[in-house]
Amino acid sequence: MQLIRILKRVGVLAVAVTATLLSSVPAQAYPFWQAVNTNANWHCGPTTHHVASTKVFFQSCIVLTPDRKKGQSVLVVRNDASVAISIHGTTNNNFGGSAPCNVSTLNPGRLTGCYGPTVSVVGLALKADGHLVMNNIGDETQVATLL
Fold this sequence. Notes:
Elements (H helix, E strand, L loop, with lengths): L1 H22 L9 E2 L7 E3 L3 E3 L2 E12 L5 E10 L5 E9 L5 E8 L4 E5 L3 E2 L5 E9 L2 E4 L3 E3 L1
């Protein structure tokens, strides 16, 4: 009977420790590519095609929280080619939230984004750009700005 009580207490303690550890880690999308769902909080630079393909488009964006106190940069890529492509790169900005973007396969007709960390942007003029390597060929986005 006492062994059962000890095992129950150990189980409760393990759950509490795990919950504490998980809640102390900030949420991060990078370095993984994620779905892109834009709204009025997205401020993007020009969309251009990649130097290696007129069917692969990319751009840099700045995404703000509704109160405009926090933001993140995003490297957005769309594959309009008829074949899958290999992508990786970086999303860069002047407000301390740059991030690497892991190697990933982007299938035809798909849109994806690599999100930098969310950081405070209060009182800053914001700039973001990106570097995309597509099938081992690098190219730079045009700059997204938000004053």
